[in-house]
């Protein structure tokens, strides 16, 4: 994959209006889950709209290594699963590339089968904490041996006789929740996950869609998710909706680039994912939900974003963090073009993403002439209004696709071009970013490394 290869520098130049229709790829979270649950049901699951980004392709390869048949024919992916408890022991190391979601969900899915698997990733993934997943997997009876600090490469020895678990997640993480639920699939009885703050609920929805018994209750403790183990999962026909986290980039680019008017059709507005759009509207963005409708049980709309010259800084409520956790980098680019201070609190998790996203954005924004303050779990960006960002800097993407795309977006609206040292990682989640932004009228150039 490209983030293992030579760096791909790219420069975003100040440009005129962005306009047209931005058809963003399929949802990354849903794509991983469709492959994994397809592999855990018996029979053929078909998936259209799958994100064909490197992260998801790595999960597809992993599912093959565990014994499922995964094949793309035409526009459709076909998965012949092996059933709950049917995973084979992989013969080689599972390389999850850049993907925390991939590795954590797959660890969960195999941890309650009597097999052993070794996982690795790229330099970014091998720095990220895995104890948040291996701690609850140990309660099922699985064992993990990794590098110091619970880092990859890591071997998981699955439980011989898994027991069900009741687990309160100590961090707001859909990956942890999902790893526990996937492990619970092959444990007898009821596995319960309790989360204090609601995180994205695609696993719960898709497990129910595949025929598992899952209930969700809200009470004083938070959200309580109960899964009955050892179901026969029924294969499904899945149409993956487009990714709101990818939609964020053309939307934000349009809001800050003078004269722009961009339509981003068919975007899921599941409340556990849509926090950015609420925040942008509070900042005064001209962002309209056109043609709101329901598709596959999810609220969906076409997003229309127009240049918004009067954006103002706001305080983003910490309770909204989980619903926009991947969007803070691009929000900070918008905040740099707003008037006043945007304060983002309750965002400690940003420090353990593909990069330390607070540090990566703060250093790059400062290089572009923007004022940033930061603490361990908060940061603030103070902008001086539309057209005020100096730019003219070279910034680091740190093997992080969202950092790379956020600075390219800012480059369209800055006074001088912004160069990102390595845009290879964009292929993990949004492989068509560059041609799509060019179609809208953006000026992006690549330079020799
Ligand atoms: C994801 C959950 C989030 C998010 C990631 C995708 C998922 O991570 O940042 O991009 O698909 O479950 P955390 O669960 O660690 O917050």
TrEMBL record:
Pfam families reported for this sequence: EPSP_synthase (PF00275)
Residue positions of the active site: 326
The reaction(s) this protein catalyses: 3-phosphoshikimate + phosphoenolpyruvate = 5-O-(1-carboxyvinyl)-3-phosphoshikimate + phosphate
GO CC annotations on file: cytoplasm
Tree of life domain: Bacteria
InterPro entries referenced in this protein's UniProt entry, alphabetically: Enolpyruvate_Tfrase_dom, Enolpyruvate_Tfrase_sf, EPSP_synthase, EPSP_synthase_CS, RNA3'P_cycl/enolpyr_Trfase_a/b
Chain's role: Catalyzes the transfer of the enolpyruvyl moiety of phosphoenolpyruvate (PEP) to the 5-hydroxyl of shikimate-3-phosphate (S3P) to produce enolpyruvyl shikimate-3-phosphate and inorganic phosphate.
Name under which the protein is recorded: 3-phosphoshikimate 1-carboxyvinyltransferase
Taxonomic source organism: Roseivivax jejudonensis
Source organism phylogeny: Bacteria, Pseudomonadati, Pseudomonadota, Alphaproteobacteria, Rhodobacterales
């Amino acid at each position: 994959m490209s983030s293992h290869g030579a760096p791909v520098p790219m420069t975003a130049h100040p440009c005129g209006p962005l306009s047209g229709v931005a058809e963003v790829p399929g949802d990354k979270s849903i794509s991983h889950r469709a492959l994994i649950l397809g592999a855990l049901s018996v029979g053929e699951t078909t998936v259209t709209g799958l994100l064909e980004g490197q992260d998801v392709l790595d999960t597809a390869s992993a599912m093959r290594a565990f014994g499922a048949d995964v094949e793309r024919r035409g526009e459709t992916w076909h998965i012949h699963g092996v059933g709950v408890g049917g995973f084979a022991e992989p013969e080689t190391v599972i390389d999850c590339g850049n993907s925390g979601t991939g590795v954590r969900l797959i660890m969960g899915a195999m941890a309650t089968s009597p097999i052993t698997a070794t996982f690795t990733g790229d330099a970014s993934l091998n720095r990220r904490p895995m104890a948040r997943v291996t701690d609850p997997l140990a309660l099922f009876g699985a064992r993990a041996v990794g590098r110091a600090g619970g880092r990859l490469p890591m071997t998981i020895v699955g439980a011989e006789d898994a027991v069900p678990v009741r687990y309160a997640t100590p961090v707001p993480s859909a990956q942890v929740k999902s790893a526990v639920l996937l492990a619970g699939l092959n444990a007898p009885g009821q596995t319960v996950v309790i989360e204090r703050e609601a995180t994205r609920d695609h696993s719960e929805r898709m497990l129910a869609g595949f025929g598992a018994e899952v209930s969700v209750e809200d009470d004083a403790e938070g959200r309580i998710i109960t899964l009955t183990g050892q179901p026969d999962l029924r294969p499904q026909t899945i149409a993956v909706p487009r990714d709101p986290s990818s939609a964020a980039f053309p939307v934000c680019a349009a809001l800050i680039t003078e004269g722009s008017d961009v339509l981003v059709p068919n975007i899921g507005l599941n409340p556990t994912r849509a926090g950015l759009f609420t925040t942008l509207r509070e900042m005064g963005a001209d962002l309209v939900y056109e043609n709101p409708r329901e598709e596959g049980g999810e609220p969906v709309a076409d997003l229309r974003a127009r240049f918004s010259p009067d954006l103002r800084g706001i305080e983003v409520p910490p309770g909204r963090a989980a619903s926009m956790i991947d969007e803070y980098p691009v929000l900070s680019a918008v905040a740099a073009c707003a008037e006043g201070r945007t304060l983002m609190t309750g965002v400690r998790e940003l420090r353990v993403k593909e990069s330390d996203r607070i540090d990566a954005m703060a250093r790059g924004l400062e290089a572009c002439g923007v004022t940033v303050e930061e603490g361990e779990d908060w940061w603030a960006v103070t902008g001086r209004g539309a057209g005020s960002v100096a730019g003219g800097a070279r910034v680091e993407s740190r093997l992080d696709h969202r950092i790379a795309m956020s600075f390219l977006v800012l480059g369209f609206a800055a006074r001088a071009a912004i160069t990102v040292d390595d845009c290879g990682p964009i292929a993990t989640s949004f492989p068509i970013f560059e041609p799509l932004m060019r179609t809208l009228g953006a000026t992006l150039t690549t330079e020799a490394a």
